[in-house]
Design brief:
With about 350 residues, the protein is an alpha+beta fold. It is built from 10 helices and 7 strands.
């Protein structure tokens, strides 16, 4: 209902104004979906990965910006859940569930200007960091180097514990509801902020596979939207002529639907595998790049079916938003959590 009733209603406005999809996110909070991945013991719903993927797909069908915010949030929540240590982090996980806190991440840029000041207060700084939906997030996960060990890790900060100074105003081509602004970032870090594992471990075991699965599911949702549009276009009779007179379009639509189903079957199989293993997933799942290409070809095929009507921005059969959202998808991933830094690891996990 959040997708079909709320997200769909405001998707065009979110895209046109380049604003945060507040209505849809309020709906997710009301349905307590921001904590759906957390175990019941922490106040969540304890959903399996394949169920979370389905939510991402449904949201992607109606508003890609809402879907990708959901994707980033769940990736960060699962990273905290699977790699945290200490009671302080467990209390934070319960607070995420109780108050439906929104979590973002900026792992692409390393907070490597780490200094130890008076009373052993550790300060971490980063410059020109893209932090998606920073103005609306309650928690920010950053990538920093620990001065004691020298290794990289992820640290979690409340919004009032981290200083974000906007350096440049972003205006994305696609996924315009995410906010593509660039910030300088600084925060004081303690052991209570830091996850127990290294960044490499968190990335390989959780960030990359979860982001890959949920992103691909959301992109299949975008494909669903494009296919729906093409189906409606054919149903109108393509300019007044009956759909039965155009078997070629119907056959092409069937092939597109089959390709969509194949992509999602790969996502679903990998989601099941992820749920069966504690560590990183392996096997036959598609890479992010392969899935992005496959979904782009599906949307392009739907555009061909709609012809000129598909190019009418804002028209009944326009597919411009879906195309632009897909163009922004991979850049969003790099900006959100720094998958480019572990690109080789991705090959090992799928």
């Amino acid at each position: 209902m959040v997708g079909s009733v709320i997200a769909s209603r405001w998707a065009a406005d979110v895209d046109g104004e380049g604003r945060f999809p507040s209505e849809a996110m309020d709906g997710l909070c009301h349905e307590r979906l921001l904590s759906c991945a957390l175990p019941v013991a922490f106040g969540g719903d304890g959903l399996e990965m394949r169920e979370i993927c389905m939510i991402a797909r449904v949201l992607g069908r109606y508003c890609a910006s809402t879907a990708m915010i959901f994707v980033v949030h769940q990736t960060m929540v699962l990273s905290i859940l699977r790699h945290h240590r200490g009671e302080e982090m467990e209390a934070l996980l319960r607070e995420i569930a109780d108050d439906q806190l929104l979590v973002t991440g900026c792992g692409h840029d390393l907070m490597d200007e780490v200094t130890v000041g008076p009373d052993n207060v550790v300060s971490a700084c980063g410059r020109a960091v893209t932090v998606l939906f920073a103005g609306q997030a309650d928690l920010v996960v950053v990538r920093a180097r620990r001065p004691d060990h020298g290794d990289e890790t992820l640290a979690v900060f409340r919004a009032d514990e981290i200083e974000l100074r906007r350096q440049a105003l972003g205006d994305g081509l696609g996924l315009r509801g995410l906010g593509w602004h660039t910030y300088s970032v600084s925060a004081s870090m303690s052991e209570g902020n830091v996850l127990g594992a290294s960044f490499r471990e968190v990335a390989a075991e959780t960030v990359v596979p979860v982001l890959r699965l949920l992103s691909c599911a959301a992109w299949v949702g975008i494909a669903d939207s494009a296919i729906d549009t093409a189906d409606r276009f054919i149903a109108t009779g393509e300019g007044g002529t009956s759909a039965e007179a155009h078997p070629a379009s119907l056959r092409r639509l069937a092939r597109v639907q089959q390709r969509r189903d194949e992509v999602y079957s790969s996502v679903d199989r990998s989601a099941v595998e992820f749920g069966a293993h504690i560590g990183a997933i392996g096997g036959g799942g598609q890479s992010i790049a392969d899935s992005a290409y496959a979904v782009s070809s599906i949307v392009s095929a739907a555009l061909d079916i709609c012809g000129t009507a598909g190019y009418q921005d804002g028209g009944e059969f326009g597919l411009g938003r879906q195309l632009r959202d897909l163009l922004g998808a991979r850049e969003m991933i790099r900006s959100a959590v720094g998958v480019s830094t572990v690109a080789r690891r991705e090959e090992q996990v799928g």
